[in-house]
Design brief:
By secondary structure, this protein is of the alpha/beta class. The chain has a domain at about 10-260 and about 440-490: Amidase signature (AS) enzymes, CATH 3.90.1300. It has 16 helices and eleven strands. The chain has helices at about 10-15, 20-40, 50-65, 105-115, 155-165, 180-185, 220-230, 265-270, 275-290, 305-320, 340-350, 355-365, 375-395, 420-425, 430-435, 465-480; strands spanning about 45, 75-80, 120, 170-175, 190, 210-215, 260-265, 295-300, 400-405, 440-445, 450-460. The protein has an eleven-stranded mixed sheet with strand order 1-3-2-4-6-5-10-11-9-7-8, sandwiched between helices. Strand 10 and strand 11 (about 450-460) form a beta hairpin. The longest helix has 22 residues, at about 375-395.
């Protein structure tokens, strides 16, 4: 018999109260995965033994009358580029299909300390390079709202797992929109934190100056709780912010937004949006005005160069980071003979997919002698101009808003043959990663095919508490939370 939908926090409270056991919850979770994932294909692998070991610890603590840590007992899905000791980390690539992680990522340690059962590793675009989860070497994850459509990417598996109700929370990574864009397309909530606020130790690198591990949830409250679990300084990550402000993100949620100054980014509203997306964003602007916020247009003139800048910087960093996959140290080795050069070529030719090869070649070109200053150097200068635009805007406004994705979920295969059109899917999300600022995507409506639309909120560095509060106010005002396709709502 189907149980009514619960939030992650409500489920945690029931477990703490002894109303349900963590093992029982896990039984139901794996039963749901068995029913749904053959169609959705969100998971690359399940980690049942590890999850049940954690759930048993939770039940023992409840039986002993102990207070559980935040979100203990709530099953979680983990993107397959985040290390979990003794479990494969494949990055959905053939070159790492048999690689077993020898250590935990820092966020994995945080999850373990909070006794959050990790039920499996989720599918993704290979090495997080993509916007649709079609670039996986293993499966094409489907959007739970319409299985003929993509869930977004690169964290499509983690987003689809939550949107389909296979788990209530998950972790992905966001390099150019890889959490916010699938959150938008799947009708859930996704946060990209300030660069350095969540440790990257144990995250397989794509573009090191852009990557951030990021949470997904069905609603803002659950998202705030999961973010509270994973955000902390880490001496193992040299880019970690070592002395961040101590904030109770959940305690900040109920503060009013009346009097806030919010700017809507004019360039993003004119970025060729699907008509229903533009209408939903304009309605969201009015909603904030109705709640007492001052909302006015703001211009970020250099944002139009963000895509070009990003695809030079990100591919350059990818070309450097992926040089380590050479068939010598770990991962796939092809043609193991005396000619090491041929072994390199054969290993990388077989191990990497077409999109990864494309980005390695683009990045190698922009870093090559005679082109570095013309491409990579200029892209970094443009990056600084984009940062300056955001700084100027935040001197006038508390937060900014705009669309998350220019369209709702597109058909599988629709953009596969046109990389430029695929790259443009991230036109509204990429500027955030270049600037290193936080942003959140929340549901704000539906198109005429009842596919979800996402609203993106941008904040200055370390403004996550205010961002979550501003998102929570919108969610409360509109009732757009815990959205799930009707056929899956009670599974």
């Amino acid at each position: 018999m189907s149980k009514p939908f619960l939030s992650a926090l409500e489920l945690h409270q029931q477990i703490q109260a002894g109303e349900r056991s963590a093992v029982e919850v896990l039984d139901e979770t794996f039963s749901t995965i068995e029913k749904l994932d053959g169609q959705i294909q969100a998971f690359n692998a399940l980690t049942k033994d590890i999850a049940y070991a954690t759930a048993n610890q939770v039940d023992q603590k409840v039986k002993a009358g102990e207070t559980l840590p935040l979100l203990a007992g709530v099953p979680l899905a983990l993107k397959d580029n985040i290390h979990m000791e003794g479990v494969k980390t494949t990055c959905s690539s053939k070159i790492l299909q048999d690689y077993v992680a020898p250590f935990n990522a820092t966020v994995t340690n945080h999850l373990n300390r909070h006794l959050i059962p990790i039920v499996g590793k989720t599918n993704m675009d290979e090495f997080a390079m993509g916007s649709s989860t079609e670039n996986s070497a293993f499966n094409k994850t489907k959007n739970p709202w319409d299985v003929a459509r993509v869930p977004g990417g690169s964290s499509g598996g983690s987003a689809a797992a939550v949107a389909s109700g296979q788990t209530l929370i998950s972790l992905g990574s966001d390099t150019g929109g890889s959490v916010r864009q699938p959150a938008s397309l799947c009708g859930i909530v996704g946060l990209k934190p300030t660069y350095g606020l969540v440790s990257r130790y144990g995250l397989v690198a794509f573009a090191s100056s852009l990557d951030q591990i990021s949470p997904f949830a069905m609603n803002v409250s659950d998202l705030a709780a999961l973010f509270q679990v994973i955000a902390s300084p880490d001496t193992m990550d040299s880019t970690s912010i070592q002395d961040p402000p101590q904030v109770d993100y959940m305690a900040e949620l109920n503060k009013p937004v009346e009097g806030l100054k919010i700017g809507y980014i004019a360039e993003l509203l004119d970025a060729g949006l699907q008509p229903e997306v533009k209408a939903a964003i304009e309605k969201a602007i009015q909603t904030y005005r109705d709640m007492g916020a001052m909302v006015e247009a703001v211009s970020l003139p250099n944002i139009k160069y963000a895509i070009a800048s990003y695809y030079i910087i990100a591919t350059a960093e990818a070309s450097s980071n992926l040089a380590r996959y050479d068939g010598v140290r770990y991962g796939l080795r092809e043609m193991d003979d005396k000619d090491i050069y041929q072994m390199y070529l054969a290993t990388r030719a077989k191990g990497f997919g077409n999109e990864v090869k494309r980005r390695i070649m683009l990045g190698t070109f922009s870093l090559s002698s005679g082109y570095y200053d013309a491409y990579y150097g200029k892209a970094q200068k443009v990056r600084q101009l984009i940062r300056n635009d955001f700084s100027k805007a935040f001197s006038q406004f508390d937060f900014l808003i705009g669309p998350t994705s220019p369209t709702t979920a597109f058909k599988i295969g629709e953009k596969s043959s046109d990389p430029v059109q695929m790259y443009l899917s991230d036109i509204a999300t990429i500027p955030v990663n270049l600037a290193g600022i936080p942003a959140i995507s929340i549901p704000c409506g539906f198109d005429n095919q009842h596919l979800p639309i996402g609203l993106q909120l941008f904040g200055p560095h370390l403004s996550e508490a205010g961002l979550l509060r501003t998102a929570y106010a919108f969610e409360t005002q509109t009732g757009l939370k815990n959205l799930r396709p009707e056929a899956l709502a009670t599974v």
